[in-house]
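Lecture notes, unit on protein representations.

Consider one protein chain, 357 amino acids long.
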Amino acid sequence: MKKLALLFLTLLLALVVVACGGDNAGDTTDTTENENASDATEEAAPAGDAQFKIRAGIGLNNEHPQYKGLLKFKELVEERTNGAIVVETYHSGQLGDDRTMMEALQLGSQEVTIPSTAPIANFVNEFSVFDFPFLFPSNEVADAVLDGEVGQNLLAKLDNQNLVGLAYWENGFRNLSNSVKPVATMDDFRGLTIRTMENDLHLDAFRALGANPTPMAFTELFTALQQGTVDGQENPFATIYLEGFYEVQDHVSNTNHIYSPFVFMMSKPFFDGLPAEFQEIVQEAAVEAGQYQRQLNREANNEYLQSLIDAGMTYTEISDEARAEMREAIQPVLDQYSERIGQDLVNQVFEAIEAAQ
């Protein structure tokens, strides 16, 4: 009788253990890793009846107009697919630098990223044409060319790289900041070590101006500026302010040396696997969110120049004469790259710019 009672108590205890902790018995997930994964994104995808998940990563932080545009894309896609597609958004280089994320798209291990055209040129050489210094005279002309036939034809070339170009967004006109001296003329560039993107045309153009360009991942830039590894960098005013570069840089100049577009791109294996109606929704959302992002970006760049001045940076205006001298100094570089890219394409771009003006 005692043996039966002991057996009954043993069975009862086992049932209690299973009831209290049985959900974890077969779960080998590291809780800490799971918490970190949820922290990696500002906007996690809802856990509904999703058929597809888009992981969208950018290098800039969550205050930048690029990220706000990405949230608009998320909103449009999830609403128009009734949650069948969910979008997870990652900022601040959480999924890697531009090149790493583009390669992830090619492999199908990430779905969306929005790099500048400079790193894209390492995959499709013709995109270098948009990194010609002093190419676009205004935002409006850039819009007309990028959204027109020339720009769309270049997006189509991404297909051969297992990528799909859906729309142009905007980084904006790039300007120089540094911790050494005010830059007003070409002579002021001499001897400055300037971080650039990994793009041969950018490197050669800065060498022609007398600077020492150093390619570096954006995620490493603040530390490099802080430690004096480089003297300066070049980015739109919004990026300079929102990334806190004013904390480690004393001078900023409106060089406006390059108008830098973003390209909203998607993994071709993923895009090709979407139903036709979802492909159309994603395409339209990328364009619509891009128009929203461009407007935000233009407002931000005007606002953040004043914020940089208020933060204590010395602001230097570049005269038309000084900018013309810079353009003349880099002309041999442009001639060289026109041959590499293809003179016909370069001519088409300049004709489109003239028509837009």
